[in-house]
Amino acid sequence: MTIEIEDIDSCKKRIKFHIPHKEYQAKIQNSYLTLARQVKVPGFRPGKAPMSMLEKRFGPNVKKEVMTQLISERLAEVIEEKGFRSVSPPKLLEVEAEEGTDISVSASVEIVPEFEIKDYSKLEIPLEVTRVTNEDVNQVINYQREQQGTKVQVTDRPVEDKDFVKLDFKGTLDNKAFEGGEGTDHIVQIGSEFLLKDMGNQLIGMSVGEEKDIPVKIPENYSSKAIAGKKVIFHVSLKGIQKSQLPELNNDFARNVEPKNKFTSVEDMKQKIRSELEEHARKDAFGNAKKLVAKNIAAMNPIEVPESLIDEQIKHMVIQALKKEQQTKNQVEPTKEEEIHVTDSQKSEHRENAIQLLQQEIVLDQLSNNLKIKIDENELNAEVSNMARIIGETDINKIKKEWKQNGLLVRLQSRIKRDKTLDAVMKDVLIKEEVVDRKQHIDNN
Hints:
Helices cover 48% and strands 22% of the residues. The protein has 445 residues and is an alpha+beta fold. The strands form three sheets. Strands 1, 2, 3, 4 and 5 form a five-stranded antiparallel β-sheet that branches. A hairpin with a 2-residue loop joins strand 1 (3-9) and strand 2 (12-19). Helix 6 crosses helix 11 and helix 7 (307-328) packs across helix 8 (344-370).
């Protein structure tokens, strides 16, 4: 089969080839023979109907099916033979099929352009490990003390930050009560996520037995749409104040706070907590360095990204942004993905990020092929098991089957492959390790 390949641009190829008439005819005859055994023709036994009658009844459909199958098979063979990484099904441009002559086919296919990964062995990557301070260690210990703390009544002072308050409240909007705006003997901590900051600040300084009208501006993203973004009034009656009394920090506390860690003393607890925090800091630093490696290697290998991939990525980004917005607003019935239309402004907003992400994925995919990165079943099962434990699922085979059907398993495999590729690349680049203060680390990111 003679094949002609023409470059339309770096991501599109025009493929031209011929299908011999003899091959086409042979396929037609075989189709009729198969059809004769399958269909019932009045007056004839199965398989004995004259070919002329089959041609008259089924000819157009048979020829169309054979033509479609031959073209599809030939295009697939050409794409595989040439090593094209197609990103969408080929599009037929022209088919010339006059009776008794060879069939001439012209089609276009969108592909990932060929490229060679440039040498990255001299690439220098900073590994910024956040310094673990005494304050960091003490914060962990204080959290553990708070977890085991007891609440004691306060009678000699007004409300302070971090106190637990017991109160009755009744909210009104435009002098009318609203659903969920009333409570009795409600206990909440000042400064916690369960109390609106605007309200908590105005409770500070109140004394037990005091009543007060507190104006509160409700956040725009508040769960109750009826009052979201509006100004309401809460009439509050303070009924009690409690504070946390923390256990004494001594060797007994250290030995009993977390039996699995087997702390022998306060000093031993501090050392082990510091080691754990340093391990987390190094792990985070390594993760950030891997992201930087992916970004830098993609920048070293600029490639044109197929438009169909860009459109697909933009739609994915729009869908994810919409889902996040709907979750924030607690929308009960999220919009179906097939109903989402990407606007021109959304395309402009997400295009640059979409291209950068796709460039990274294409380059890393090429790298994984070069490095012969493989994922075995044990690695996949281990990752599925870890994720299953998080969501409380025990049947691994069941969850793998579900994820395979909805596409999550393929995405998980891609993520594992990406991580393994970057782990391999990290061994070949120049790592410049540096311990940095937390503020410096935040500023650099």
